[in-house]
Amino acid sequence: MEETTAPETTTQSFEPSTALGGGFDMPSNPMTFDPTSLPDGLDREPSLRNFDSVDKLAKSYVHAVKKMGVPPDQMLKIPQEGESWDDFYTAMGRPESPMAYNFEGMNDSEELNDFRQAAFELGLTQNQAHSHLEKVAENAGNQQQMQNEAMEKAEMEGFKALQKEWGGDYDKNMDFARRAFGRYASPEALELMETTGLGNHPEILKIFSKIGEQLSEEQLLPGNASGFGQSPGDAEASLRERMNDPEFRNALINAHHPNHKEAVAEKSRLYGRIYPT
Q1: pTM for the whole thing?
Q2: How far apart, in whole angstroms, are the C-alpha atoms of residue 155 and residue 206?
Q3: What CA–CA distance (Å, rounded) separates 276 from 270?
Q4: In this model, does residue 128 exceed pLDDT 90?
């Protein structure tokens, strides 16, 4: 019986063709990650040097996404140059329209609506706009307080200068000024003098004092020289008491005070009683 011999099998090793791959070497492990082979400058990114396999890179990406808590497709996008910011502002919490800003305790006005429009264009949220408005109001209040204090200081210095200049004639000359002003000043003029502080300016008082003196000599003003220096009566006492009241004085000189018109009217009324026409 003849012995059968199996055909000899020839094993050949496979090498990729350089004609197609340009000399590219197939990785021994498809999961291997080599950052130096990445394009567009990524090959020089230091943070990628920590990964030597694709699975490590993938795990790091998944971990980063979970840590952010927001899927990549839902992340807030910063608008590029020329793009609208409306979607960004809305996502950040800006109200849907300027009039949707709610400022409780503040009366609607043209100025407040202008602020609403500016806040909307800047993309401010309700809380941001409210905080900014409170700061603006606080600064305005501080400026008004400083203005009032400066006005009071100027008045005191003016009175001291007149006392020094007029000496013993101070009361008489002041009475001349009050009589002239009370006779000719309209309520509008009185309000202007009080809000600007001109009514207590030394030069204005000198002018009215001179007018009052001349008119008194012509007997065009009520009273006579013998009455100078005497108490003007209950009306003048009331006026002096009111002027010593800080709240009344603030309402009188602050045109934005809610009681400003009433204070001006009351002072005008008292002047009319002290110096009737």
Answers
A1: 0.41
A2: 14
A3: 10
A4: yes
